[in-house]
Amino acid sequence: MFGSPNITTNSRGVPYLRTTSVTVGSEAVDFSLGFRRVNPGYFTVSIANPIPDGTTETLPITLSIGGQTKNLTFFGGSSVTVADLAGTGVIEVFYGPLSGVVQLVSPLAPATT
């Protein structure tokens, strides 16, 4: 069973977590997932709370997950930033608490012009 009986999963058992809040700080923008116990592996995040307009686009994104706040990174370790996650939508993430990895797995939508 995934970390909490309140976590929804899809038909293949992939957890589907929804952000409960977004906090803009001077060092980062944090999306809270609202769950203390999240098992390692893949999960889907529904970003239900958009980052407020006017937020500095170079701020890194963090996820509050498993009682800790971790940087969300791309393959190779560079930080996902506000410029990468404008608006609301769904992303896929890999969480490896022992290695400290919280990595964006899904490709980002193309920028609109």
Please provide a written account of the structure.
- With 113 residues, the chain is mainly β.
- It is 0% helix and 37% strand.
- The chain is built from no helices and nine strands.
- A five-stranded mixed β-sheet has the order 1-2-5-8-9, with no helix packed on it.
- It is globular.
**Gyration radius, rounded:** 13 Å
Low-confidence stretches: 1-5
Order of helices and strands: EEEEEEEEE
Ends distance = 43 Å
Helical region count? 0
Briefly note the structural class of the backbone: mainly beta
Notable traits:
disordered N terminus, 9 strands, 113 residues, globular, 5-stranded mixed beta sheet, mainly beta, single chain
Quick synopsis:
This protein is an all-beta fold and 113 residues long. Helix content is 0%, strand content 37%. The chain has no helices and nine strands.
Secondary structure topology:
Layout: E1 8-9, E2 15-18, E3 21-24, E4 29-32, E5 41-47, E6 61-65, E7 68-71, E8 89-96, E9 101-104
Parallel strand pairs: 2-5, 4-6
Antiparallel strand pairs: 1-2, 3-4, 5-8, 6-7, 8-9
